[in-house]
Structure formats: C-alpha cells, structure tokens
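User: Can you recover a sequence for this backbone? Please restate the input before giving your answer.

Assistant: Of course. Working from this structure:
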C-alpha cells in the first residue's frame, strides 16, 4: 500500500513538474509596444528575397509599392550562379547593368538594398569578400542586412545551426537533412563570419506565422554570445509566397497589428507570382492598398531595426527561458507547417 502510494506520489510530482516546465518554457516573453516616429500606430517592413527574380517579375511590384509609399528591403546577388540546376539559385544579379540601374533608382527613392550571399550557390571566402567589395562599389557602402540563401555552404548558422540549444538542434537533424552551413566555421574554405561581424549589422533567422513579429520576441534585434559572428539577429513574419503574404495582411491581422502597436518584418519572394500573366495579383493589390491607407510606418527593415535598438528598455541577449520559447516555437511551426 505504501509502495503504491509512493508510485502515485512520484507520478503526481512528475506530472506537476512537466506541466510547470511546459508552462515556463512556452510562455512568451513579456510584450512591450513600441512608440513609433510621428505617432504612427505600427511598423511594417518587407524583406524581399531575390530568388528567381527578373526585371519582368519584380519591377511592376516595386513600382506599385513606390506608388503606395511603401519602402522596403530588397536583397541581391552580386555574382551569377554556379549551380543553375537548382531553381532557387536562378535570378538576375549585379552582372546585369539594366538591373543595377534599377536598383540604384530604388535606392535613391529610399529602398534598402541588402545581401543574399555572393550568389545563388556555394561561395568561398574570397568570393564573398569580392562580392561585398563589388556591393560597396555599386551602392556606396557595405550591406547592413544579410539573408542566408537556401542551402549555401557559406550560410551563417543555418539549418540545425540556427538553433543555439543542442537538444533542439539534435531534434531538427532528425527531421531535416538540409545542407550544412560553414560560413561561421573558421577552418572552412567557406568561412566569412569575421567579415560579417565587421560589416553586417543584421541577419534574419526564424520566421513565424504571427503578423506582429515583435510579439514573438520583443527583444529583436538581439545578439547571442553562442553565435558571435552575427551582430544582431531578427525574426520575420512568414509571407514567403503570394498566398501566404496575402493571408498575413488580411484586414483582421492588420487591425490587430495596429491595436497592439506592433512591428511586422515580413519575409517574402516578390518573384514568386506576385506579378503574373501581365498583372499584379489582385488580392495583393487590394490588401496592400488597404494596409498602406492605415496609419503605419512603412520603412526598410534596417531603419526599423535601428529605431527599435535605440528605444528599447532591455539589453541585447534573451535569457535561457526566452531562447527556449523562441526556438521551440519556431521548430514547432516548422514541423507543423514548414516555416522558414
């Protein structure tokens, strides 16, 4: 009888401990709204991944955004791909003079130009350094934002290495078999982490389905001592393709973003059917027009990140519980829906 009571007691204690731990590690960091310039009610910053981009696909989209007064961040490749068999590696680069002229026009209008690696495909340290120098020659300075590309070996802390906690990294490896990343490994020919540390301010890592990116982690942009070659990480809201982008910016979500005085860093691919069959996707056109009509701050990601850093109350690094929550939530969403 006593033995049975002891077993029940042990089981009860174990259940209480598990529930307490689950609550502790799945409770989000305390959300603190941000006050924006000129009394704006929310911030909305688009980061456009250059995969598959051509002038024909993206120019109409950017012209429309410019018409709406929505400035954003556009990533670029400097060098032509060395692996054209993979679709994500294809797209226009700085080797195209017409494209360069258009990018310079966008930059002059207030759009931000960012780095998507040297090319679509693996790049050695020397390739990356050369690409960054070319970027500076064209645009007047090094890029402030870098976005890792697909399965490039030169990516920084990508794949399982995105996760700073070993058990979650191990769990990721069980379900995914993507390419390794060596950009942060000093012994590798693909290492350029020290260059990134010197020249790049921000790198995006996790993408979530929540429109208020800041609500998932109010500490962005943040630094991790365990990943020293990235100065500041930031998250994004998942609008990777036209349908998911349109779903993200539906009216009820925009209303919530506004009421929460939130920040949305939306990650997308404008080359992916936003402009098709000679017209901009009509749902995207309508919903962006509504969004732009609201009292929001529509600025490039780098500008918004700078502003948040200057006006937040806490330091840079999430504590252990906050890291567990962020990484566990991302891994859950990825396993469930394939988030980036």
């Amino acid at each position: 009888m006593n033995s049975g009571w002891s077993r029940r007691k042990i089981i009860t204690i174990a259940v209480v401990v598990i529930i307490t731990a689950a609550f502790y590690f799945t409770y989000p960091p305390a959300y603190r709204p941000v006050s924006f310039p000129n009394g704006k009610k929310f911030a909305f910053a688009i980061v456009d991944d250059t995969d598959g981009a051509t002038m024909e696909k993206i120019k109409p989209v950017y012209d429309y955004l410019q018409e709406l007064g929505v400035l954003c961040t556009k990533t670029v490749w400097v060098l032509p791909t060395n692996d054209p068999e993979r679709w994500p590696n294809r797209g226009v680069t700085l080797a195209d003079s017409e494209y360069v002229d258009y990018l310079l026009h966008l930059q002059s209008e207030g759009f931000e130009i960012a780095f998507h690696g040297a090319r679509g495909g693996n790049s050695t340290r020397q390739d990356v350094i050369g690409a960054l120098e070319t970027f500076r020659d064209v645009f007047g300075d090094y890029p402030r934002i870098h976005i890792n590309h697909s399965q490039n070996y030169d990516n920084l802390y990508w794949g399982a290495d995105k996760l700073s906690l070993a058990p979650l990294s191990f769990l990721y490896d069980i379900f995914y078999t993507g390419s390794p990343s060596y950009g942060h490994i000093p012994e590798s020919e693909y290492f350029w982490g020290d260059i990134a540390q010197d020249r790049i301010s921000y790198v995006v890592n996790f993408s979530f389905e929540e429109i208020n990116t800041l609500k998932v982690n109010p500490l962005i942009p943040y630094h991790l001592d365990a990943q020293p070659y990235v100065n500041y990480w930031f998250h994004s809201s998942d609008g990777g393709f036209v349908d998911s982008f349109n779903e993200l910016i539906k009216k009820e979500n925009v209303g919530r973003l506004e009421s929460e005085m939130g920040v949305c860093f939306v990650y997308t691919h404008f080359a992916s059917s936003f402009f098709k069959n000679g017209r901009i996707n009509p749902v995207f056109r309508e919903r962006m027009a509504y969004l732009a009509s609201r009292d929001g701050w529509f600025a490039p990601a780098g500008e918004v990140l700078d502003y948040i850093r200057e006006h937040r109350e806490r330091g840079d690094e999430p504590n252990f519980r906050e890291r567990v929550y962020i990484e566990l939530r991302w891994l859950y969403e990825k396993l469930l829906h394939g988030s980036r």
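That completes the design. The longest strand covers residues 42-48.
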